[in-house]
Amino acid sequence: MLDVGGELCGWVCSMSHVQSSAAELAQLFDESSVPVYVLDEDRRIVFANRACARWTGLPMKRLLGLRCAWHSDAEQGTAAGAGAGLCPPPQVFSGQTRTAVVHCPAAAGQTVYRRGHFLPLSDGGDESAGVIAILEPVDCPIETALEATATDDLLHEQLRRLRRRMATRYRIDSLLGDSPLVTRARAQVELAATNGASVLVVGPPGTGKDHVAKSIHYYRSEPGLLLPLDCAILDVNLLRSALRSAWAKISGVCDGVSTLLLSDVDAMPVEAQSDLVDLLRLEARPGRLIATATRSLGSLASAGEFSTVLASQLSTITIELPALAERKEDLPLLAQSFLEEVNARGGKQVAGFTGEALDLLCGYAWPENLDELAAVVRQAHERSQGAEVAARDLGETIHCAAGAKVHPPRVDETIVLGEFLASVEKELIARALKRAKGNKTKAAKLLGLTRPRLYRRLVQLGMEPPDFQEV
Predict the structure, then answer these.
(1) DSSP secondary-structure letter at 181?
(2) C-alpha 28: how far from chain center
(3) Which of 88, 137, 179, 274 has the most crowded Cβ, counting Cβ within 10 A?
(4) Domains of the chain with CATH codes
(5) pLDDT tens figures, 185-229
(6) Alpha-carbon distance values, 104 to 47, 101, 114, 142 (Å)
């Protein structure tokens, strides 16, 4: 049974076959109680009816000209957020009719959903001249409505909702996902963000350690000063000077809780470690310490490579970030997140990934973790020719890795010469004995051996018991 929105969709489709004026269409839409808007080929809203303005809560002059982009990286209440919520799937601009869930923020801060029917407009050529969007109420739980959407639409909405749940002053996109390791890391971040204790963020390169560290600092509504120091690039003298200068600067800040961020603290020279220990012994310690490391400070201290005192003081709360290879179930959501970050910049819009492309991404080892995934997705977005990233759009490294799995290199077997020659000799003797019907004298002649020599070899090769005697 068609509701009002469905009837209006059918009417629009039928009107495409007759010569109707734009004024007639506009009048019909404006009188409808169903929200309707029209986007041009640049994804800007060029028409919206009064029902659409009422539903979005946006004044008409703000709604018209709003550019829609397919991403979830936007705050609610902003123009970018409204445009992202109303954006149709990019496939519509390639001529496909699609149905997808759209949303807008309600006055109470909740999100109101509608089912959008998106109909491409054609100017007679291959390219879309725009899109008509007709919105009808969602008459079932939103989870049920989402189950009927395409995979890339579903990832898009999952990403938007997860980002909203995780929203802080400084979002932690590197911890998107529901894998057990990431769920634990998010809980550790929340504990650290609401606690003034020292924090150590440990993880392989490319897992977003500095991003997580900054998120902890900016979690407070009124954060103080953040002073980052890269322990891996400063020599001992510069690091000593920078530590004392940073500590003095933090001491002079009265507003908020200031933070000294020590990046790659496991690379800090031993002499600078001693200086930091001395600074930490001051009775009135200003601010808080957050450090990042690739290796466990406890393990380094046990091996005599790091100050035991400093390792203890920096590791009051330790957050362990997993490698991407350890959280492969999060990869589709992370890839979609990086893709939508590119969409948010404007220009070409890509909806998601084909199943084959996702399979290739999930099959790769990702030695450089999230940094490598982000770079691969950016390049694939640039190469893509359609509304989705296809397998052909992924880089050569991904395809080579997949090919290596299908056709692994042959491992040459080691040949132990003595064992190999012994096996050949046993085979020849066995054949000679079979041909001689067990007569060892005849077998020796066939092999060109003397009878005593054959008897000795039979014993040596284990073909006769050691107590065998020639008769």
Answers:
(1) H
(2) 45
(3) 88
(4) 4-149 (3.30.450.20), 180-321 (3.40.50.300), 325-406 (1.10.8.60), 417-460 (1.10.10)
(5) 999 998 998 888 899 999 999 999 999 999 898 887 677 888 898
(6) 17, 11, 9, 14
H or E element: which one contains 37? strand 36-40
Q: How many Cβ atoms sit within 10 Å of the Cβ of residue 99?
A: 18
pLDDT in tens, 173-186: 788 888 999 999 99
Is residue 16 exposed (0-12), middle (13-18) or buried (19+ Cβ within 10 Å)?
exposed
H helix count then E strand count, the chain: 20, 12
As a whole number of angstroms, the distance between CA 293 and CA 202 comes to 5
CB 207 within 8 A of CB 323: yes
The one-letter code for the residue type at 259 is T
Q: Which run of H or E residues covers position 207? A: none
Strands 352-353, 388-389: pairing kind: parallel
| pLDDT tens figures, 25-45 | 777 888 888 999 999 999 999
Q: Report the run of H or E that residue 172 belongs to, with start and end.
A: none
What the block records as the tokens of 410 is 């042959």
Contact status, residue 230 vs residue 239, Cβ threshold 8 Å: no
Report helix, strand and coil shares of the chain as percent, to nearest 5.
Answer: 50, 15, 35
Cα separation, 426 vs 444, in Å, equals 13
DSSP 68: P
What is the identity of the amino acid at 459?
A: V
Which residues make Cβ contacts (< 8 Å) with residue 456, sequence separation at least 6?
A: none
Cα–Cα distance measured from residue 215 to residue 193, given in angstroms and rounded to the nearest whole number: 8
Tokens representing 224? 């103080």
User: What is the rounded distance in angstroms from the CA atom of residue 249 to the CA atom of residue 187?
Assistant: 31
Tokens matching residue 64: 């018209």
Amino acid at 303: A
Instruction: State both tokens at 168.
Output: 């802080």
**Cα(71)–Cα(284) distance, integer angstroms:** 46
If residue 220 lies in a helix (H) or strand (E), which one and from where to where?
none
244-290 confidence digits (pLDDT tens): 888 778 776 666 678 889 999 999 988 888 888 887 776 556 678 89
303 near 329, Cβ under 8 Å? no
Q: Is residue 2's pLDDT more than 80?
A: no
DSSP string, 381-435: HHH--SSEE-GGGS-HHHHHHHHHHHSPPPPPPPP-HHHHHHHHHHHHHHHHHHH
Could you report how far apart the first and last alpha carbons of the chain are, in Å? 102
205, β-bridge pairs: none
Give exposure, 182-215, as e/b (b: 16+ Cβ within 10 Å): beebbebbeebbeeeebbbbbbbebbbbbbbbbb
Q: Which residue has the tokens 């029902």?
A: 51
